[in-house]
Specification:
5-stranded parallel sheet; alpha/beta; 19% strand; 45% helix; 5 strands
Length: 135
């Protein structure tokens, strides 16, 4: 099972997701793509098997993934302070992979109907959903 984690900005969410997935799903092929090199580096250190950076890495790895995990902004062009290009958002949305999206209310994108929760709880819920999808 190929799981792709995508994150940007400081890479904090991606680092937490990667560490939790590496620990909780040891049999997956875990790839991390950062929208910048800092995010990619943090995710690699957190346990990703491989990491890459940038638009083309997102596009290519979305074609290979069975599951894509990341903040909801990865499906919104120009989100994450402009780090998500239209091509990145399209690649995530057009992928045949299942998408596990974390509802982060940042950068003028507000998800209503979802109570604010600590990042740790959101990461735990995302990992549980990935485990469910793997089964």
């Amino acid at each position: 099972m190929r799981v792709l984690v995508i994150d940007g900005q400081g890479g904090g969410l991606g680092r937490q997701l990667t560490a939790a997935l590496a620990a909780g799903c040891p049999d997956i092929e875990l790839t991390a793509v950062g929208t910048n090199s800092i995010a990619a580096s943090f995710m690699l250190k957190a346990g990703a098997h491989r990491a890459a950076t940038g638009e083309n890495a997102v596009v290519v790895n979305c074609r290979r993934a069975d599951i894509i995990v990341g903040p909801i902004g990865i499906v919104i062009a120009d989100s994450l302070l402009g780090e998500i290009t239209p091509a990145m958002a399209a690649a995530v949305c057009q992928s045949s992979a299942a998408r596990v999206l974390i509802p982060i209310n940042h950068c003028d994108n507000i998800v209503v109907g979802v109570p604010d929760q600590p990042i740790g709880q959101l990461v735990t819920a995302a990992v549980e959903k990935v485990k469910e999808l793997i089964r």
